[in-house]
Amino acid sequence: MWVTGNQSDRQGVVAVMVVAGLMALMGVAALAIDVSQLIVAAQRAQNIADTAALAGGCDLPDGQTARSEAVSIVATNNSEGCGLETQCDISDTVYYGPNQTVPDYQVLGPWACTLRVSTHVPVEYSFGPLVGIEGATATRSALVLRAPVGGIPVCPMWIAHETPLAYGEEQSLLMGDGPHYAGIPGSFGFLQAPVGSTAAGFDLLQGYDLTDEDIQSSLVGVGETMYADPGVDVGSFTSALLAHQDMARLERGTSGDWASDTFEDYHSDNPRIMLVPMCTYLGGTGSNAAFRIEKFGAFWLEEVQGGQKTIIGRFLRYDMPGGEPDPSLIKHHGIFATKLVQ
Q: What is the pTM of this model?
C-alpha cells in the first residue's frame, strides 16, 4: 500500500504529539515527586518545631535556657537514619517576656512569656535540576506560651491574699483566727465547694478519686466569690489531709509512685500539691461569709497538726498539667500552664 504525502505528514505530527505528551506526563510526575518531598519536609519541620518549643517552654521564664534547650532538642532529632536533616540555631529562637507584643499573636500580660522556634529542612529536588531548580527549604515555626492559669479546680480552703508567696518557706495555711483576718465569725479557714460542683467539699479537700465532671464543675477564677464552710472541724480536715483509709493527701503523697518525692523534685500530680484560692474577706458570718478570689497559690503540704489546728505548707512555682494559660491576666497566681498556641 502506498502512503500519500498527507498521510505521512499526519503520522509524523501524531508521533511528535505523543512524544510531547509523554514528556509532559513525565514532567508532571517528576514535579509531583519533588513537591511530595517538600511536603514531607514541611511536616517534619513543623513536628520538630512543636517538640522543640514545648521542650524549651518547660524552662520558661528563663529565656536563655529555654532557647538553648530548644536548639538542643532539634539537634537530638537529627540522629543517624532520621532522614531529612532539620536546621535550627539560636538565632531561630525568640523569647518574648511580660508586657511585650508577640508578632501575629497578642500583647502579653505582666506574668506571661513565650518562646518562638523556627526550623528549616532543606530539600534537594530529584528532577528540578532538569529545569534549573536545585531544591527548596521548608520552614515552619511554633509558639509556646507560659502564663497564669485562668481557672482551676481548687482545694476549698482560703488564704489571705496578702500572704507573701515566699517560695520554699514554711507557712501556716489555715486562716482561722488569723494572722490576717482574725475573728471572722463562723469561719475556720475553709470554703464551700463552688456552686454547681458535683463533688463535696470534703472530696475536693482530699483531692482523691475525682471524676472529670467533678473537676470541670469545680473550676473557679480570679474575681469570683466563694463562701465559708463553718462545718469543717478538726476531725474533718485531718481526715482529708492527714490520714483516712490511705486516701488522705499526706498518706497518698508519701507512698507508691510519690514515695520519693520531695519539695525540690516531685511528680506534678502528687496529692501533696494543694491549689488554694488566695482571697479578700468581703463580710458576712457563718456560711454567708464571702471571699473574693484575688489569685491562687500552689502549696506543698508539709504537715498537719489537728490538735494544734495547724496546716503547714510551702509555696511552689507550679506548672499545672492540662491547665489553660491566659496571657492577659494581670495577677501573679503562682500557678502556670504551658501550651502551644501557634
A: 0.71
